[in-house]
Structures are given as C-alpha cells and as structure tokens.
Amino acid sequence: MMMSIGMASLPLIFLLIFYEVSSADWGVSYSNSQICALKNSSVTIYCAYTYPTGHQIKKVFWAKNSVKVGEEYTNLSEDPEYSQRLQYLGDKQNNCTIRLSHVTQKDSQNYYFRFITELDKWIGKPGVSLTVTDLQVESPETVKEGHNVSLTCKSSCDLTDRATFIWFRNSQPLTERRDRNNQLLLQSVRREDAGRYSCGVQGHNLTSPVVELNVTFEPSSVSVSIISPSGEIVEGDSVTLICSSDSNPPPEMSWFKEGMFVGSGRIYSISKISSDNSGEYKCKSNNEHGEKDSEAVTLNVMYPPRNVSVSISPSGEIVEGDSVTLSCSSDSNPPAEISWFKGGRILGSGRTYSISKISSDHSGEYKCKSSNKHGEKYSDAVMLNVTYAPRNAVVSISPSGEIVEGDSVTLSCSSDSNPPAEISWFKGEMFVGSERNYNMSKISSDHSGEYKCKSRNKHGEKNSDVVILNIMYPPRNVSVSINGSGVIVEGESVTLICSSDSNPPALDFSWFKGRMIVGSGRIYNISKISSDHSGEYKCKSRNKHGEKYSDALTLCVMSVRWVLWFKAFGVGVAVGGVAFGLGGASVYTCLTKRMNRRSAMKDSGNSDPSEDFNLCNAYDEL
Ligand SMILES: *[C@@H]1O[C@H](CO)[C@@H](O)[C@H](O)[C@H]1NC(C)=O
Ligand SMILES: *[C@@H]1O[C@H](CO)[C@@H](O)[C@H](O)[C@H]1NC(C)=O
Ligand SMILES: *[C@@H]1O[C@H](CO)[C@@H](O)[C@H](O)[C@H]1NC(C)=O
Ligand SMILES: *[C@@H]1O[C@H](CO)[C@@H](O)[C@H](O)[C@H]1NC(C)=O
Ligand SMILES: *[C@@H]1O[C@H](CO)[C@@H](O)[C@H](O)[C@H]1NC(C)=O
Ligand SMILES: *[C@@H]1O[C@H](CO)[C@@H](O)[C@H](O)[C@H]1NC(C)=O
Ligand SMILES: *[C@@H]1O[C@H](CO)[C@@H](O)[C@H](O)[C@H]1NC(C)=O
Ligand SMILES: *[C@@H]1O[C@H](CO)[C@@H](O)[C@H](O)[C@H]1NC(C)=O
Ligand SMILES: *[C@@H]1O[C@H](CO)[C@@H](O)[C@H](O)[C@H]1NC(C)=O
Ligand SMILES: *[C@@H]1O[C@H](CO)[C@@H](O)[C@H](O)[C@H]1NC(C)=O
Ligand SMILES: *[C@@H]1O[C@H](CO)[C@@H](O)[C@H](O)[C@H]1NC(C)=O
Ligand SMILES: *[C@@H]1O[C@H](CO)[C@@H](O)[C@H](O)[C@H]1NC(C)=O
C-alpha cells in the first residue's frame, strides 16, 4: 500500500516510505505525517488503507481532529467549510487519496481517514498534520551601497527542500539572482537594488507582502539647473536655481558663489538679481555618507549701459593741430554699441572718436551714447575747447565816417583767438593802450595818425592792418602875409597871402578891406597899388567845418614923393628897413599916414577902427 501526500503543484517526487498505521491487516498509510502547504494552494494527501480479506467496505470518509458526533467522526465532506474544496480521489477498496484546495490558515489541523466495513471500522490515527503557511520577506530596512545584504523568504513551516523560491523586485521577477535556498544574497549592493521585494514559490501564485529595501549611498550626480528664467538673465529678474542630486538619505544642500557660502536648501532664489550676482555658483550635497559638489553654473546677468562717460586724450589744453581722441567708457552686458554726438548731430560710432588735426571748428560739446538690447544711456557732455593763436586783428572805428575835432572816438580791436587775446594799441610805433577799446573822448588833430592793434595770447600774436585817423577841423591860425619888398610904393604890385590851418585844407578864402569884400582865393593881388589901397585887410578861411577871420593887416602905401624924401635922408632906408622888419606894415602905414593927409582912415570902416587909429596915432609921435 502506498500513500503519498504533498503539495499539489510542486513537482514532488512521492515519498514512497509510507507512514503506516496498522494492526493485523487493518491499516491506513499516508505519504507524509506532516504537510507544509502554502496558503491557497491545493494539497493532495496520498493515502492507502488495508483491511482483512472478507470485509466489505461500507463507508469511507475523512475526518478532522476528533470532532465527533456521538461516537462517530464527522464526514468532512459534509462540513460547509470544506465541502466545496475537498475532493475524494480514492476508491472504496484501498485508495483514500484526497485533495483540499485553497487551503487557509484555518485548515491547519490533523486529518484522518475513516473506513467502515459491515463488520468493523477503522480510524487512521495519528493522521496527517497539515500546516498552512504564508511567506514573509525578512530583510534589513536599509543597507549601505556596497555592502552585502541577504533577504530571507520565511514560512512558518518547512517547505520541502525541493521548493524553489523566486524573488520579485517591484513586481518584476529576478532571474539572474544568486539564490541560496530561501535566501536572496545581494552582494555589494547597488542603488538600483533598492526596491519593493517579495518572494514566492515556483508554481504558486502566492507571494509574500512586499518589503522595502532602502539602499543608502553618498550623494552623486550633483547638478545645478536654472529653473527660471528660461533664457537670458536680465538685471531685476527673479532667478531660481535648483540643486539636484542622487542621494539616500536625502541630502542637505548648501550653495556657494565662488567659494563663498550663500545659502542652503535645495532651491536658491535671488529675487531681484543685479550684476553683482553674476558669477559661478555651485551646490554641495551632503548626507551621512559623504558630500559632493556640483559643477559650477555661471550666472551672466545682462544689464543696460550705465556709467557712460567720455574722456579726452590728451588731457589738458588742446591746441589747434593736435590729435585728439575721445573715448567712451560704459558698463553694460552684453557690451554696448557706441555712437558719438556733437550737439544733436551724430558723428560716428565706435568706442573711440579721433580727430587727427583738430581745428577750432571742432570745439563744442561732445557726448556718446551707449546702447545694447537692454537699453541705452548718454554720457554727460564734455566740452572740447580748442585753443589757438589769434587769427586776425581788425580795428574798427566808431563812429564811422568823418571824424571832427571834439568828437569822441573809439577804436575797437576785434580778434579771433582762444583763449581771448590781450590787446595792445600802437600809434605809429608807440604803445598807447591795452584795452580792447581805445577811447579818445575829445579828439584833437594831434590824434591823427596811424593806429594798429596787436592781439596776443599764449599761442601767438597778430597785428592788425594800420588804420589812419584823419581828424577834421575848421580853419585856425588864419593870418595874412604880405609878399612885397619892404616898402610899398605907389604903382607896385602887392600880393597878400592868406594862410590857415584846417582839415580838410580850406579852399574858400575871402578878402575884406574894412567891411567890404574885395576878393577871393588864397592869394590877393593888387597889381598897381595906389594910396587908395591903403587900409585894413583881413582874410577869412573856410572849410566845411567852420570859418575864421585873420587879424587885420593895415596897408600903408607910400607916395613916390615920400620915398624920394626918405632917400634924401639916407639912413632912412636902413632905419625904415629895420622898422619894417620889427613893426611890419603898420609902421609904414603910420608913416605914410603922417606924410599923406589923405589918409585911408576914412575908408577903414573896419570892426575896430578906433584901435587902428590909436595905433596909428602912436606912430604919429615918431
Ligand atoms: C487563490 O488561488 C486562486 C487560483 O488558484 C486565485 O484565483 C485566488 O485569487 C487566490 N486567492 C488568494 C486569496 O490568493
Ligand atoms: C460523506 O459526505 C459526502 C458528501 O455529502 C457523501 O458523498 C459521502 O457519501 C459521505 N460519506 C459517508 C460515509 O457518509
Ligand atoms: C490513488 O488514486 C490517485 C488518484 O486517482 C492516484 O493518483 C494514485 O496513484 C492512486 N494510488 C495507487 C496506489 O494506485
Ligand atoms: C560581501 O561578500 C563577498 C563574498 O562573500 C565578500 O568577499 C565581501 O567581503 C563581502 N562584502 C562585505 C562588505 O561584507
Ligand atoms: C495562478 O493564477 C492564474 C490566474 O490567476 C491561474 O491561471 C493559474 O492557474 C494559477 N496558478 C496556480 C499554480 O495556482
Ligand atoms: C532610507 O532610509 C533613511 C534612513 O535610514 C531615510 O532617511 C530615507 O528617507 C530612506 N529612503 C527611502 C527612499 O525610503
Ligand atoms: C557705476 O554706477 C553705479 C550706479 O549706477 C555706481 O554705484 C558705481 O559706483 C559706478 N561705478 C563706477 C566705476 O563709476
Ligand atoms: C577754453 O580754454 C581757455 C584756456 O584754457 C579758457 O580761457 C576758455 O575760457 C575756455 N573756453 C571755454 C568755452 O571753456
Ligand atoms: C570806451 O567807449 C565805449 C563806448 O563809448 C564805452 O563803452 C567804454 O566803456 C569806454 N571804455 C573806456 C575804457 O573808457
Ligand atoms: C597855430 O595854432 C596853434 C594852436 O591852435 C598854435 O600852437 C600854433 O603856434 C599856431 N601857429 C601859428 C603859426 O600861429
Ligand atoms: C613875391 O614877390 C616876389 C618879387 O617881388 C616874387 O618873385 C614872388 O613870386 C612873389 N611871391 C608870391 C607868392 O607872390
Ligand atoms: C598875382 O600876381 C602874380 C605875379 O604878379 C601872378 O603870378 C599871379 O598869378 C597873380 N594871381 C592872381 C590870383 O591874379
């Protein structure tokens, strides 16, 4: 008789050593007295029974423990907990095999086979002890990467040696694993080995609850990324950096900018970024197992131009002809484009603006404009002050036109120079003044002459052309002179000359004898003088600025008789010559008057006849 028991789906090789319960010929043998079965599996209990020959089998059934109704065991097939699951596979002769499917923990009992003949009955004690077990993975919670760890698939009873354990990680069967009985040995654990482990037995659907294996390791793959903004970083933006790292347990993170600690946490935010925040950032990730730095990430903060200024080279004074370079400096990111302006006019572009031979036309206010795509800014204006020697010196006369004595006249010297020139005035070669305006308040003819000004600054000097001041004045020093041979004798010709000083020279002369106009022209001829011509003569000189009378000249004409008389006294000629030389015509006149009663006095209705008369009287005494 052979009875074998085991687990339904296991490739069991039946144990042929049967477990026999017998007395004489009575007996029940089971394949196994103890069966370890997985929950929900089907268990087949192989069973055989014997009885003495001649007996007829009346009843066969299986019973559980010693549950009896009265004196009789209860038929397990009639127990509602079993009825659906229990299957009697044997017969009514010697095969008592059964199968119990979907075993549960409650099924862990002792089971016996009972058979009854018409003569007697038999219970196959001590029966079969069934233990139903589930599976549990036993594992440490955490393991450090690189260490060895073993996971055990535990059951409450011994499954047969033949049971093949299978392992799952995250529900995926592990094929290539090094199994050792019910243990999973993970050597030199890698982080990928972390996961939800469960175990099972080949051929069974039952798997253990999952157990989490936590592989700890030091931080690796530390990296920084910029979450926002996505593109270019412009000053004022809010910038957020995030540090990611592979690490278990989760790391602590700290942030460094160029080696300086700036913050901690997974996220580093700069709410209003400025260019000062530009630079290389790293994060450091560390946990109990170690630490690691990320690669540096560069924040390049863009900003519009600022600090725009112009510098002039060479510094200091700029003299015409110099080479001058203006440089525009500005701070911006990205670098700016520069353009140049003089006044409102654009000159060009480029960081520098050069003028190779500067002239005064280049003087003025310059500025540069710096622009990039984030904005633009103008520099302050700088003054380019080109200095140069006086270019010219020009004298102007005010008032213009004719200058008449007594006028106020101003000479002005204008000159183009930088810095402004010092002015000197010259009349002829003589220095006369140093103001820009040379004033002559009541000009006189003495001021006539050649004037020029000299304009001078530290770069050179320049003389003006000469201007001539020609000062007009009315006649003056009007006098009458007589051109004759000392003694005026009747019949001779006499020439009276009117001389005067005036500017312009007088052309208009009038002659008066007494109050009567007797002629004109500078020279007054009397071709055959007679005593009738005796009298007082004056001339008047006139130009457009005025007129003036000369003093009166008294003309005394000698009669021929008188001359003869005079000659008879000999010396008289010499005396008369001397007297003539000293006293002039008056003496003669007076002498003549004394000799000639027909005095010309009656005619001399001049302005001051009494004086002349007196003068003549004085000479009468001679
Ligand atoms: C028991 O096994 C059957 C198939 O044999 C399956 O359909 C059922 O879901 C299982 N029950 C449990 C609780 O595992
Ligand atoms: C035990 O119960 C089953 C099901 O009710 C029945 O088929 C079988 O005949 C019974 N056996 C005996 C000996 O009563
Ligand atoms: C008993 O019956 C079962 C099921 O039919 C069978 O597998 C087994 O081989 C039989 N045992 C013997 C000894 O014939
Ligand atoms: C892990 O197991 C291997 C092989 O048994 C052994 O050589 C190694 O030293 C073990 N490592 C540790 C960390 O125990
Ligand atoms: C396992 O379950 C599947 C479906 O749930 C079923 O088809 C299969 O027969 C079961 N295997 C065992 C050994 O119970
Ligand atoms: C692993 O274990 C550590 C503590 O040992 C814990 O801090 C960490 O959160 C765990 N990791 C996972 C993924 O559960
Ligand atoms: C540039 O301008 C900023 C303000 O806009 C100022 O704080 C800084 O000192 C300036 N730098 C220079 C070199 O002028
Ligand atoms: C230019 O420079 C000169 C000398 O340095 C100075 O006298 C003059 O005032 C300056 N001109 C201007 C417009 O600044
Ligand atoms: C010269 O004359 C001008 C114009 O009459 C006057 O403005 C100026 O002050 C005078 N200068 C001097 C030094 O008298
Ligand atoms: C003419 O007048 C000026 C002054 O007006 C005087 O100085 C000068 O001597 C005069 N000349 C003659 C020849 O009388
Ligand atoms: C003055 O008189 C002399 C001779 O008497 C004569 O030669 C001369 O030309 C006269 N001069 C003038 C200016 O009339
Ligand atoms: C005056 O007389 C002189 C000489 O007699 C003569 O040369 C001159 O032309 C005369 N002049 C006039 C204006 O008659």
UniProtKB/TrEMBL annotation:
Residue intervals of the Ig-like domain: 126-216, 219-298, 305-387, 390-469, 475-554
Gene3D superfamilies assigned to the protein according to its UniProt record, in alphabetical order: Immunoglobulins
Keywords, sorted A to Z: Immunoglobulin domain, Membrane, Signal, Transmembrane, Transmembrane helix
Signal peptide boundaries: 1-24
Coiled coil location: none
Pfam family name, one: Ig_CD22
Function: Most highly expressed siglec (sialic acid-binding immunoglobulin-like lectin) on B-cells that plays a role in various aspects of B-cell biology including differentiation, antigen presentation, and trafficking to bone marrow. Binds to alpha 2,6-linked sialic acid residues of surface molecules such as CD22 itself, CD45 and IgM in a cis configuration. Can also bind to ligands on other cells as an adhesion molecule in a trans configuration.
Subunit structure: Predominantly monomer of isoform CD22-beta. Also found as heterodimer of isoform CD22-beta and a shorter isoform. Interacts with PTPN6/SHP-1, LYN, SYK, PIK3R1/PIK3R2 and PLCG1 upon phosphorylation. Interacts with GRB2, INPP5D and SHC1 upon phosphorylation. May form a complex with INPP5D/SHIP, GRB2 and SHC1.
Protein name: B-cell receptor CD22
Originating organism: Carassius auratus
High-level lineage: Eukaryota, Metazoa, Chordata, Craniata, Vertebrata
